[in-house]
Amino acid sequence: MKEKLQKGLILPLKILVTEIKEEEKKTESGIIVIEQKKHTTSGTVVKVGKGTDKIPMSVEPKMTILFNPLTAQRFKIDKEDFLLLDQKDVLFAF
Predict the structure, then answer these.
(1) In angstroms, rounded to a whole number, what is the distance separating the alpha carbons of residues 61 and 45?
(2) CATH architecture assignment, domain 2-22+30-93
(3) Which of 3, 17, 18, 71 has a CA positioned 20 to 30 A from the CA of residue 65?
(4) What's phi and psi for 82, nearest 5 deg?
(5) pLDDT digits (tens, 9 = 90+) for 29-41
């Protein structure tokens, strides 16, 4: 799978991300608490496309970013989940 990612081409201003899975929340008695759909989520940047002459890329691989999951395109490579999003959809990077 890593070989496919290294050979793959990311289009300009696009970011490939793996979503950070959060642990299930449980009450003291063991009941799983289901939360409503989040409006933001976080993930780790895996690969970044090139910027343009006017818009440089502001994130780098291995950074953690916050983004709106509704704007991300989800897909799988060798049974691993990834998201592809535009740089403009990144809310915060650290």
Answers:
(1) 5
(2) Roll (2.30)
(3) 3
(4) -135, 160
(5) 888 776 655 666 8
